[in-house]
Specification:
alpha+beta; 4 helices
């Protein structure tokens, strides 16, 4: 069942606790959308690819947290291993927390961190909307609530 989170209710440190919870509860791989402006070099994306390379997994068909008009709900997706070490790398790539809004930097940017549990989205952050959803059981939602996470029945924009 989907439970919705709002970025303005989660500080950066708490966002990393959420990601660690995902890793401890079956989250084994993640995706981040790497964006750049057409025709411009994207050194920020290149840097991300470089530091994430040790954790790269083979691409696989996965559902997307964000589906743009005309795209399928699931598609071939670049994946990385979710581990203590890769979380350290993500902390460097998202210095303002997992819910960092897109920078729209000319050198490229990262958005939409998505954690998968098996072939399903466990945590999908919709960076440009400042919201996220989790596909979790009521017991897991209760556990996260006890850790200070506030869920909503619906999203505002998602």
């Amino acid at each position: 069942m989907n439970h919705f989170l709002r970025a303005d209710e989660i500080d950066p440190a708490h966002s990393w606790e959420l990601l660690a919870w995902c890793a401890a509860h079956g989250g084994t791989e993640f995706f981040i959308r790497r964006m750049s402006l057409v025709g411009l070099p994207a050194p920020n994306v290149g840097h991300a690819d470089s530091v994430l390379a040790p954790y790269q997994l083979p691409p696989a068909i996965r559902p997307r947290a964000v589906v743009y008009d005309g795209q399928p709900d699931a598609e071939l997706t670049d994946l990385w291993l979710l581990s203590t070490e890769s979380i350290r790398v993500l902390r460097d790539l998202f210095p303002d927390g997992l819910f960092t809004p897109p920078s729209y930097d000319d050198g490229g940017w990262l958005e939409e961190p998505t954690v998968f549990r098996g072939e399903r989205v466990l945590l999908g952050v919709v960076s440009h909307e400042g919201e996220a959803f989790m596909d979790i059981a009521e017991s897991e939602a209760a556990e996260l609530h006890s850790l200070g996470f506030r869920f909503h029945a619906t999203g505002i924009w998602i």
